[in-house]
């Protein structure tokens, strides 16, 4: 399976991202470029068609589509069931480009309003909700507090992270009702080849 060629548009995305990373060492610059490349990827009909058969990631899972051996960026996918409510979290110090490939999703953005000096407490306020449609990409900055929610139908998103966090770095978790805060592992990584 590893020897099968990747879907052409997906391979092109990887090679374009690698070429930019080779010439640019700054993480923010890389992720801004990757956002632009990802817009083209999630706007592509052949990948959307391909994703119709991707397995659901219910139960705190991500599909692991690719991990770059040289530059460390990781390409994940989430496949949400209709109306899926994601939890409020951050991605620690990593940058994340979040692209909707199929269906629609809502991205809720929060702002922290307490002083941040109590280890298990975080008071957060909803800053805004944006609708993401197929072809749209949101660039999430380090420590930005957010939640992705599923739409009325199955939805698929392709996510590029500046580095792998799972197994290395814990991510912040927020409860808007109880104002509790804790840190935990990101989603389980399920290897999946886009071939
Ligand atoms: Fe997220």
Q: What would you say this structure looks like, in words?
A:
The protein is α+β, with helices and mostly antiparallel strands. The protein has one domain: Jelly Rolls, CATH 2.60.120. About 20% of the residues lie in helices and about 35% in strands. It has three helices and twelve strands; from the N terminus they run αααββββββββββββ. The strands form three sheets. A six-stranded mixed beta sheet has the order 7-4-9-2-1-12. Strands 3-10-11 form a three-stranded antiparallel beta sheet, with no helix packed on it. A three-stranded antiparallel beta sheet has the order 6-5-8, with no helix packed on it. Strand 10 and strand 11 form a beta hairpin. Helix 1 packs antiparallel against helix 2. The termini are close together. The mean pLDDT is about 95. It binds fe (ii) ion (FE2). The site of fe (ii) ion has 4 residues, from strand 8.
Key terms for this structure?
single chain; 195 residues; alpha+beta; Jelly Rolls; six-stranded mixed sheet; three-stranded antiparallel sheet; 3 helices; 20% helix; binds fe (ii) ion
From the structure provided, what is the oligomeric state, counting identical versus distinct chains?
single chain
Which overall shape is indicated by the principal axes computed on the Cα atoms? globular
Q: How is the main sheet built?
A: 6 strands, mixed
Bound molecules: fe (ii) ion
Query: Which stretches are poorly predicted, pLDDT < 50 over at least 5 residues?
Result: none
CATH superfamily: Jelly Rolls
Rounded to an integer in angstroms, the radius of gyration calculated over CA atoms is 16 Å
Question: Class in CATH?
Answer: Mainly Beta
Strand-residue fraction? Answer: 35-45%
- Please state the structural category: alpha+beta
């Amino acid at each position: 399976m590893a020897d099968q060629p990747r879907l052409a548009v997906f391979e092109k995305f990887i090679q374009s991202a690698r070429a930019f990373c080779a010439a640019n060492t700054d993480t923010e610059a890389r992720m801004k470029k990757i956002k632009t490349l990802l817009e083209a990827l999630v706007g592509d009909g052949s990948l959307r068609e391909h994703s119709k058969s991707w397995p659901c990631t219910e139960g705190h899972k991500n599909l692991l589509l690719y991990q770059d051996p040289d530059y460390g960026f990781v390409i994940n996918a989430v496949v949400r069931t209709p109306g899926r409510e994601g939890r409020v979290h951050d991605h620690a110090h990593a940058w994340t480009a979040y692209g909707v490939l199929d269906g629609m999703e809502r991205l809720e953005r929060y702002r922290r309003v307490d002083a941040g000096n109590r280890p298990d407490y975080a008071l957060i306020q909803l800053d805004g909700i944006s609708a993401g449609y197929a072809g749209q990409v949101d660039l999430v900055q380090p420590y930005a507090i957010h939640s992705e929610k599923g739409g009325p139908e199955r939805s698929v998103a392709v996510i590029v992270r500046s580095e792998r966090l799972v197994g290395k770095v814990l991510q912040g978790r927020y409860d808007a009702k109880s104002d509790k805060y804790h840190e935990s592992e990101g989603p389980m990584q399920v290897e999946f080849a886009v071939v």
